[in-house]
Amino acid sequence: MSKHILVLPGDGIGPEVARIAVDCLKAAASAEGVSLTFDEAPFGGAGLDACGKPLPEETLDKARSADAVFLGAVGGPKWDDAPERPEKGLLALRSELGLFANLRPVKVFAGLEGLSPLKADRVAGADLLIVRELTGGLYFGEKREGRETASDLCTYSADEVARIARVAFRAASGRRGKLTSVDKANVLATSRLWRSTVNQLAPEYQDVTLDHMYVDATAMKLVTHPSAFDVILTENLFGDILSDEAAVIAGSLGLLGSASLGEGGPGLFEPIHGSAPDIAGQDKANPSGAIASAAMLLRFGLGEARAADRIEAALQAQLKSGRTTADIGGSLGCRAFGAEVCERLAS
């Protein structure tokens, strides 16, 4: 039975990297005997241009009926004065699909330590997973706009915290068994609720060692001793910042993918970089993050681990070959890099 994937190319470099991701999905699926079908829909700035909304109703309907959704990128200065920002479509899509858990892996492969801006001995062995709560906190709280004063309300319930904490505990149980919950419990009431709720769940996961860190201490340790972390659990705002910081451990925002998951229904898979409108259409984008996201789509969205392994192995081999894009010291364009990864997938 075919699995159906909705592709949202989005804005900026989104269509370029999404095209490469689809090519890799097709190649890996063909090699493993997996049947996939694809459809596209406007989203973000492209949705505003086509339908006047960052998340058109037809796009949302297609997303709900898909087995998985792939997003290229969203946003750009073209829509700064639009009635709605393109990013509002992304928040709405996460909410409508119930995608409360964002998984962002960061791994430095042996032999690729030189890609990192940090010293090689500092990043050697780094292999961590950030589990970020995605539908609560400041980003979804009541907002008051104003020229003199403004406010954003941060709210979490114990149920919301427990739901994301269980995802992180299960992830740690399947890895090295260490979970670091990140908060600011010395200042914030929501963080104190967060910490107490996570502590209450800990006895259910005897094979996981739990510790807590303040977000500022975590930010420092991520760049001084990244290999100390296994799974990091945190709320929406902190997770957004820490995951972008952690991305540079591997060398570039362009290298990493992400998965946003809920309790049933399609997941959303996207590279963690932005739309990079300054290089859009110039064949300069690094599609590695999109390719990594394609592997996560196969693994977490469709349950096709063998095809996911195939993509990850091909991407790692391509990066190790030194034939990379300019942002990490190579000379290949986006299309050429993607074509060589697909050649490795076919072989």
TrEMBL record:
<dbReference type="InterPro" id="IPR004429">
    <property type="entry name" value="Isopropylmalate_DH"/>
</dbReference>
<keyword id="KW-0464">Manganese</keyword>
<comment type="subunit">
    <text>Homodimer.</text>
</comment>
<feature type="domain" description="Isopropylmalate dehydrogenase-like">
    <location>
        <begin position="4"/>
        <end position="341"/>
    </location>
</feature>
<protein>
    <recommendedName>
        <fullName>3-isopropylmalate dehydrogenase</fullName>
        <ecNumber>1.1.1.85</ecNumber>
    </recommendedName>
</protein>
<dbReference type="GO" id="GO:0005829">
    <property type="term" value="C:cytosol"/>
</dbReference>
<feature type="binding site">
    <location>
        <position position="94"/>
    </location>
    <ligand>
        <name>substrate</name>
    </ligand>
</feature>
<dbReference type="InterPro" id="IPR024084">
    <property type="entry name" value="IsoPropMal-DH-like_dom"/>
</dbReference>
<dbReference type="GO" id="GO:0009098">
    <property type="term" value="P:L-leucine biosynthetic process"/>
</dbReference>
<feature type="binding site">
    <location>
        <position position="216"/>
    </location>
    <ligand>
        <name>Mg(2+)</name>
    </ligand>
</feature>
<keyword id="KW-0100">Branched-chain amino acid biosynthesis</keyword>
<feature type="site" description="Important for catalysis">
    <location>
        <position position="139"/>
    </location>
</feature>
<dbReference type="GO" id="GO:0003862">
    <property type="term" value="F:3-isopropylmalate dehydrogenase activity"/>
</dbReference>
<keyword id="KW-0432">Leucine biosynthesis</keyword>
<keyword id="KW-0479">Metal-binding</keyword>
<keyword id="KW-0560">Oxidoreductase</keyword>
<dbReference type="GO" id="GO:0000287">
    <property type="term" value="F:magnesium ion binding"/>
</dbReference>
<feature type="binding site">
    <location>
        <position position="240"/>
    </location>
    <ligand>
        <name>Mg(2+)</name>
    </ligand>
</feature>
<keyword id="KW-0520">NAD</keyword>
<feature type="binding site">
    <location>
        <begin position="274"/>
        <end position="286"/>
    </location>
    <ligand>
        <name>NAD(+)</name>
    </ligand>
</feature>
<feature type="binding site">
    <location>
        <position position="104"/>
    </location>
    <ligand>
        <name>substrate</name>
    </ligand>
</feature>
<keyword id="KW-0963">Cytoplasm</keyword>
<feature type="binding site">
    <location>
        <position position="216"/>
    </location>
    <ligand>
        <name>substrate</name>
    </ligand>
</feature>
<dbReference type="InterPro" id="IPR019818">
    <property type="entry name" value="IsoCit/isopropylmalate_DH_CS"/>
</dbReference>
<feature type="binding site">
    <location>
        <position position="132"/>
    </location>
    <ligand>
        <name>substrate</name>
    </ligand>
</feature>
<comment type="pathway">
    <text>Amino-acid biosynthesis; L-leucine biosynthesis; L-leucine from 3-methyl-2-oxobutanoate: step 3/4.</text>
</comment>
<comment type="function">
    <text>Catalyzes the oxidation of 3-carboxy-2-hydroxy-4-methylpentanoate (3-isopropylmalate) to 3-carboxy-4-methyl-2-oxopentanoate. The product decarboxylates to 4-methyl-2 oxopentanoate.</text>
</comment>
<dbReference type="GO" id="GO:0051287">
    <property type="term" value="F:NAD binding"/>
</dbReference>
<dbReference type="Pfam" id="PF00180">
    <property type="entry name" value="Iso_dh"/>
</dbReference>
<keyword id="KW-0460">Magnesium</keyword>
<keyword id="KW-0028">Amino-acid biosynthesis</keyword>
<feature type="site" description="Important for catalysis">
    <location>
        <position position="184"/>
    </location>
</feature>
<comment type="similarity">
    <text>Belongs to the isocitrate and isopropylmalate dehydrogenases family. LeuB type 1 subfamily.</text>
</comment>
<feature type="binding site">
    <location>
        <position position="244"/>
    </location>
    <ligand>
        <name>Mg(2+)</name>
    </ligand>
</feature>
